[in-house]
């Protein structure tokens, strides 16, 4: 995957410094002057500026990072972390939904099933993958693969990255809500380990349809929410311009989700976001996935299912001090 070229609004001070650095390097070559000290000073300023900006990101700015067009997608992680990936297609009822990809693979030498929501890089690919918004057949395909994994004793890895399930007429006619509900029910009792990771956007039931897992992880700049900030703003304030306010109120960032017990661990990203160094992000994720898989496998089937049940029953329970 190519290096990021898209610049978010809050990243512009960093980009200005990078442009200055590039100009200085070009001029030093042309003039044959030694400007090593000046180059080092700008490089240090870039690092300091990145640290300052990313230490003060608002929830809305983190949502923008989660949607960054150069951010690694499911297939990027699958290619890096898994060997011998064999994609499987179709739900055996209606058609293949390209917004969800899945198939068998090897992880650390172990046969596994990996399932992910996939966006497109270009307009054509986004149209083919429905901008990462699955139809009901996508969830039914995912469940078919999970049941296959259960039959052969393969752990399941789910990579979550969707604004939400597709809300179109066809999806409603084919019962998208029912498809998600069945997945939630069946994943609750699946007799193999399930590790889910929110790698970008985790939107509403569209995310939850493949996120009932023994471990739910989240990348540092990803988000996980019952509704998009824009959707929340449109409902509460009748105006999408309040999206930043909604993002703050929804508590959708990784730190808040960990505090509330919705996720089990935050996976660190390189300074600037996963898109600045996808290889490092992937290797960090590999280490975390392996550790959690080993822990879940160590529980045994009965304790694993009981712990999964208790994990989700604890969510949303509060006691007065």
Automatic annotation (TrEMBL):
Write one Pfam family the protein is assigned to: ACCA
- Entry EC number(s): 2.1.3.15
Establish whether keyword Nucleotide-binding is in the entry: yes
> How is this protein annotated for GO cellular component?
acetyl-CoA carboxylase complex
Any keyword Cytoplasm? yes
Entry keywords, A to Z: ATP-binding, Cytoplasm, Fatty acid biosynthesis, Fatty acid metabolism, Ligase, Lipid biosynthesis, Lipid metabolism, Nucleotide-binding, Transferase
User: Pathway, per Swiss-Prot/TrEMBL?
Assistant: Lipid metabolism; malonyl-CoA biosynthesis; malonyl-CoA from acetyl-CoA: step 1/1
Q: Which InterPro entries match?
A: Acetyl_CoA_COase_a_su (IPR001095), ClpP/crotonase-like_dom_sf (IPR029045), COA_CT_C (IPR011763)
GO biological process, any:
fatty acid biosynthetic process
Report the enzyme's class at the first EC level. transferase
What reaction gets catalysed by this protein?
N(6)-carboxybiotinyl-L-lysyl-[protein] + acetyl-CoA = N(6)-biotinyl-L-lysyl-[protein] + malonyl-CoA
Residue ranges of every copy of the CoA carboxyltransferase C-terminal domain listed in the record:
41-295
**Compartment(s) where it occurs, according to its Swiss-Prot or TrEMBL record:** Cytoplasm
Picking any one GO molecular function of the record gives: acetyl-CoA carboxylase activity
Cite the record's note on assembly: Acetyl-CoA carboxylase is a heterohexamer composed of biotin carboxyl carrier protein (AccB), biotin carboxylase (AccC) and two subunits each of ACCase subunit alpha (AccA) and ACCase subunit beta (AccD).
Question: HAMAP family of this UniProt entry?
Answer: AcetylCoA_CT_alpha
* Its job: Component of the acetyl coenzyme A carboxylase (ACC) complex. First, biotin carboxylase catalyzes the carboxylation of biotin on its carrier protein (BCCP) and then the CO(2) group is transferred by the carboxyltransferase to acetyl-CoA to form malonyl-CoA.
Report the sequence similarity comment from the record.
Belongs to the AccA family.
Its recorded name reads Acetyl-coenzyme A carboxylase carboxyl transferase subunit alpha
What organism is recorded for this protein? Ruficoccus amylovorans
């Amino acid at each position: 995957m190519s290096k990021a070229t898209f610049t978010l609004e809050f990243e512009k001070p960093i980009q200005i410094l990078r442009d200055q650095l590039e100009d200085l390097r070009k001029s030093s070559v042309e003039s044959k002057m030694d400007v090593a000290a000046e180059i080092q000073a700008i490089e240090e300023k870039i690092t300091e500026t990145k640290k300052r900006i990313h230490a003060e990101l608002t929830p809305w700015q983190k949502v923008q990072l989660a949607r960054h067009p150069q951010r690694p997608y499911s297939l990027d992680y699958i290619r890096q972390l898994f060997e011998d990936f064999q994609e499987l297609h179709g739900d055996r009822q209606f058609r293949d939904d390209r917004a969800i990809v899945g198939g068998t693979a090897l992880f650390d030498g172990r046969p596994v099933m990996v399932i992910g929501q996939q966006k497109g890089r270009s307009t054509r690919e986004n149209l083919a993958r429905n901008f990462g918004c699955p139809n009901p057949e996508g969830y039914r395909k995912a469940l078919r693969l999970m049941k296959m994994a259960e039959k052969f004793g393969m752990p399941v890895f789910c990579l979550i990255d969707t604004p939400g399930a597709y809300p179109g007429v066809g999806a409603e006619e084919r019962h998208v809500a029912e498809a998600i509900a069945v997945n939630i029910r069946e994943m609750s009792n699946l007799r193999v380990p399930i590790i889910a990771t929110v790698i970008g956007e985790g939107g509403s039931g569209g995310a939850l349809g493949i996120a009932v897992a023994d471990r739910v992880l989240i990348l540092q700049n990803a988000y996980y929410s019952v509704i998009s900030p824009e959707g929340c703003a449109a409902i509460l304030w009748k105006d999408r311009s309040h999206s930043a306010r909604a993002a703050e109120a929804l508590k959708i960032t990784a730190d808040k989700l960990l505090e509330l017990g919705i996720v089990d661990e935050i996976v660190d990203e390189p300074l600037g976001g996963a898109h600045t160094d996808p290889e490092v992000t992937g290797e960090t994720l590999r280490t975390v996935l392996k550790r959690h898989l080993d822990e879940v496998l160590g529980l045994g089937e009965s304790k694993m299912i009981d712990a999964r049940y208790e994990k989700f029953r604890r969510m949303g329970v509060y006691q007065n001090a």
